[in-house]
């Protein structure tokens, strides 16, 4: 067996020679899935507590460290650009002898963040698909480990059955299908319906914990692709839909997931009523009038990973700059405005979607003559749960404040 003798470094600049010698080892070491470290670790981000000027965020690292590094970029998907694809899919599906739902499982487009190399992700943790369901379309019953939701964009939004409870939805509604809940969807109206599917799928995939089950116990072999409806319509809203009141006679567990939020249906009309009722309050300098969708049993985020919120910006309102250690995507429900993110300005309107990456300074401006309502989903809850959530504000004079 060879012995290695540690020698004192020779005097004079041997460091570049040392790097050369070590790089030479790398050619061989790679065959054994080993990299001999020849450069300093260079994270993409600058230290959180260093004050930055409000424009942009960290750069991708350099050298070997950057090889497999992907970074979410600020981006906007405009309704006028993406909705024609939904119309085309709907038209093809209407005439097809085999429905796209049969061979593709869904009729949808998936949003790809340009910084994530074609991955089916809008941020590091979030997948966002926009689905179109023609009259009569049904998505078969299934259950999965990722948490998921629907945000309804069309005026009538079809239905979802979750754990035996049928939910009929309208524009602005949020329907949850927490991990481990059986669900199926469909459209029994006369018009195509469109909604956003939001999932923490990329995170579950990263953790190698994403799975789907299509065989609902009791349905196997029956040819049924939908679950029986076993609760009255509006069951979970009747139990939990009155703020501040919690029923005492039910088990809050629904499905087989760990502590899922048991309220499945949040109505857009209620969100709008609440935001408008609060519009004369001062609100938050960085957010305007903002509310979170919460688990009514615990008061916590609806999912352990994702935070869902809705906010109202009044005409002319311009927030102060804010940044968080969380990635967020937004959808515009009402109004027109702009969001400046990392030095870019995104003008937004009805149904546009945009992304604010981790660490990146942003501010919202309502440029219209009416109130604007935007919904958002971020992984701030995940970051809080793992002790990594921070937020900062930056006022007009450049003064940076720790918000969280
Ligand atoms: Fe699903």
Please give a quick description of this structure:
By secondary structure, the chain is α+β, with helices and mostly antiparallel strands. Helix content is about 15%, strand content about 30%. It has helices at about 15-30, 65, 80-95, 100-105, 200-205, 235-240, 270-275, 380-385, and strands spanning about 75, 110, 125-135, 140-145, 150, 155-160, 165-170, 175, 185, 195-200, 210-215, 265, 290-295, 305-315, 320-325, 330-335, 335-340, 345-350, 355, 360-365, 370-380, 390-395, 400.
Descriptive report:
- This protein has 404 residues and is an alpha+beta fold.
- Helix content is 17%, strand content 28%.
- The protein contains 8 helices and 23 strands.
- The strands form 5 sheets. A 6-stranded antiparallel beta sheet has the order 1-19-16-21-14-13. It has a 6-stranded antiparallel beta sheet with strand order 2-3-10-5-8-12.
- The chain is globular, with a radius of gyration of 25 Å.
- It binds fe (ii) ion (FE2).
What are the bound molecules?
fe (ii) ion
Distance between the termini: 56 Å
Helix/strand class: alpha+beta
Helix content: 10-25%
Individual helix count: 8
- Order of strands side by side in the largest beta sheet? 1-19-16-21-14-13
Q: Flag low-confidence runs.
A: 1-5
Report mean pLDDT, rounded to a whole number. Answer: 92
Gyration radius, in Å: 25 Å
**Number of E strands:** 23
Q: Could you give a short account of the major beta sheet?
A: 6 strands, antiparallel
Share in β-strands: 25-35%
Estimate the global geometry from the Cα principal axes. globular
